Amino acid sequence: DEFGHNITTGGATVSLTTNLGTLVGVTNGTTVNAVDQGNGTYTAKLTGTTVGTATVTGTLNGNPILDNATVTIGPAAPANLTKTGGDGQSASVGAAVTVDPSVHVADQYGNPVPGVTITFAVTGGGGSVTLGTPVTDASGNAAVGSWTLGSGPATNALQASASPVGTTTPVSFAGYVPPTAVNDSSQAMGNTQLGSSLTPNVLTAGDATING
């Protein structure tokens, strides 16, 4: 009681609550009575699907108990790998795309999962990457250092997968190398001619033929 005496008759009602998650398996139910010479132990399992810090609060006959318990709820195993940027870009041969491909890792409840190693690997087009094995940050995000496209015109492909393999489904990024612009031409014949009948000039440039 308020004078420090043990409660031996009448009982004292203790309740446990939490601000995050759910308490299950509370001893003798959510509300219990301490009648054993004032001594009692009250246990519960905290379960939840949201990452954060939970505080388990007890009340005695409706009055707050100062000694509360704090529990940290972390994410579950990686379950979902999604693209967050860098797909469907184009760049010149041997040039890096503007936006570095990036991914997000979440558990089955949608919570971000940090500390997951992502492997970015070129699967088509002959390009290359830098910093190809980043680790997800506190928000569950990771990005490749850079992605340089290979020879073209062609479609380049980049795949991202999470480690350990099998926890998530890999995702793929596409990059495109547009045809190069005409940058060289040669005059084949008919430069300077006089007369009533002229041979047409033929200019060749790559795979283009220009008659004029």
Give a brief outline of the structure.
With 212 residues, the chain is mainly beta. It contains no helices and 19 strands.
What does this protein look like?
The protein is mainly β and 212 residues long. 0% of the residues lie in helices and 42% in strands. The chain is built from no helices and 19 strands. It has strands spanning 13-18, 22-24, 31-33, 45-47, 52-60, 63-64, 69-73, 80-85, 89-90, 102-106, 117-124, 128-130, 141-143, 146-148, 154-163, 171-177, 186-187, 202-205, 208-211. The strands form six sheets. Strands 1, 3, 5, 6 and 7 form a five-stranded antiparallel beta sheet that branches. It has a four-stranded mixed beta sheet with strand order 9-16-15-11, with no helix packed on it. Strands 8-10-13 form a three-stranded antiparallel beta sheet, with no helix packed on it. The radius of gyration is 34 Å and the shape is rod-shaped.
Described by the principal axes of the CA atoms, the overall outline is: rod-shaped
> Rounded to an integer, what's the Rg over CA atoms?
34 Å
Instruction: Give the rounded overall mean pLDDT.
Output: 81
The helix fraction, in percent, is under 10%
Count of runs of 4 or more consecutive helical residues:
0
> What is the rounded distance between the termini?
108 Å
In percent terms, what proportion of residues is strand? 35-45%
